[in-house]
Design a protein that fits this description.
Layout: E1 2-7, E2 10-15, H1 23-37, H2 41-55, H3 62-68, H4 74-97
Antiparallel strand pairs: 1-2
Helix pairs in contact: 1-2, 1-4
């Protein structure tokens, strides 16, 4: 999954690494549940930190994310990022079925 942020008035694109530990799948589920149950600023910051550190190799800071994403894209992008580990597992399962 690619993520584009506006940092210092410049579009910067971030790509997930080819290897993401399976533990990230578990963490993504936990954060997704937390966001659904309690959307607080602290939970959003924790989710953004997770996305940066676990999915994009610390490519950006929490502040860069907040400042670099359009308000209308905030929740869809976070949702897509949290779903990306699950999508990787789905892709593998689909290949095994064939």
């Amino acid at each position: 999954m690619k993520l584009t942020l506006l940092i210092n008035n410049e579009k910067k694109e971030f790509t997930q690494p080819s290897f993401i530990p399976a533990l990230v799948f578990k963490e993504a589920i936990i954060l997704s549940e937390e966001l659904q149950n309690d959307m607080k600023v602290e939970t959003l910051d924790k989710t953004i930190e997770f996305v940066s550190s676990k999915l994009y190799n610390n490519g950006f800071t929490v502040e860069e994310f907040w400042n670099g994403i359009d308000i209308g894209d905030l929740l869809p992008i976070l949702g897509e990022a949290l779903n990306s580990p699950m999508n990787r597992i789905s892709g593998v399962l689909d290949k095994q079925k064939n």
